[in-house]
Design a protein that fits this description.
Helix content: over 70%
Distance between the termini: 32 Å
Number of strands: 0
Oligomer: single chain
CATH class of the largest domain: Mainly Alpha
Radius of gyration: 26 Å
Strand content: under 5%
Number of helices: 12
Shape: flat
Structural class: mainly alpha
Length: 316
């Protein structure tokens, strides 16, 4: 009976995938034919999207490691091509939306400025605040785990502070710590502290009761149980918090620079260039922030894979 139900479900799933895929293809073709009488430029864009969609759909069905890696590459290149073609064919003013080629040209001609802004915002502000905030969060989580008073008193306050908007606390911290990178690091500390704290506290409680009883049977001290059992078991939770904090660190450092900074930094450059209608430079700074944030997240993910290689989530 179960085998029959499983076979029926499999046939239904395959038929559904085929029909939905066929319907989507027919809808795209019909839409392109309808638009053909309206504007040929829209038809060209739809044809490019349809071609890329068919290629990616074929690669996904074929499977394979390298084919699957090509899928996001083709998708990204298609988005950039559609962006450039839309800006060019419809003559969109650069003050509204510059094309990828214009952004790339400005990127290449402003490498020294972009590097100085990257060092000011990411290295000095985001990275230092990330290290201080995450380190303090892990140490505080260990103290919270030892104290029932802190569990009842600190965590609710932490949830309240974590809900505060960054645009509200950033100008206050800039006034307290000055206009240099220290105030940006302080904003980052506030933003990353409580997500890492909550995840670490949850991770320290993730070990089984039987495992903790076994450590007590072996007369293990709290420190021995912490470093040999509870912290290793908490590592997946801790790294979840650390990965969330990578994006929060970049956001906090950039937003804090809107409220005061030296004459460099990603947030300072974005706010200045928006006032001068230099949208190509704004998009170049956005590209630097996206690349830095993605690379930062990737580094933390690689470290997680090395540290928690034993966890089921890391098995392939």
């Amino acid at each position: 009976m179960s085998r029959t139900a499983s076979g029926t479900a499999d046939i239904t799933r395959r038929a559904s995938d085929f029909l939905f895929g066929l319907d989507g293809l027919i809808a795209l073709i019909a839409g392109a034919l309808v638009v053909l009488a309206w504007d040929w430029r829209v038809t060209v864009l739809l044809a490019l999207w349809l071609g890329a969609w068919l290629v990616n759909n074929g690669l996904s069905r074929l499977g394979g490691r390298w084919r699957m890696r090509l899928v996001p590459v083709i998708f990204g290149l298609t988005i950039l091509a559609l962006w450039e073609m839309t800006v060019t064919m419809f003559a969109v003013p650069s003050v509204i939306l510059p094309g990828p080629l214009a952004i790339a040209a400005r990127f290449a001609s402003s490498l020294d400025v972009l590097w100085a802004d990257f060092v000011q915002t990411f290295v000095k502000g985001a990275l230092s605040g990330y290290a201080m905030g995450c380190g303090a969060a892990v140490l505080t989580a260990i103290a919270v785990d030892r104290s029932a008073f802190l569990q009842r008193g600190l965590l609710p306050v932490g949830n309240f502070v974590a809900a505060l908007p960054v645009v509200g606390i950033a100008p206050i911290l800039v006034m307290w710590f000055g206009f240099d990178w220290q105030s940006k690091a302080a904003v980052v500390v506030v933003m990353v502290f409580f997500p890492v704290l909550v995840n670490t506290v949850a991770g320290l409680q993730a070990s089984d009761r039987m495992q903790r009883d076994l450590m007590a049977t072996y007369s293990a001290s709290y420190a021995q149980a912490l470093f040999k059992l509870r912290l290793p078991a908490a590592m997946p939770f801790i790294f979840n918090g650390l990965k969330i904090a990578t994006t929060l660190a970049m956001i906090g450092a950039i937003v804090a620079e809107f409220f005061g900074s030296p004459t460099q930094g990603m947030g300072f450059r974005i706010s200045t260039e928006v006032g001068r209608l230099g949208l190509d430079m704004v998009w170049a700074e956005i590209a630097v922030a996206a690349i830095a944030g993605s690379a930062f997240y990737g580094v933390v993910a690689v470290i997680e894979r090395r540290v928690t290689f034993w966890h089921p989530s890391q098995r392939r």
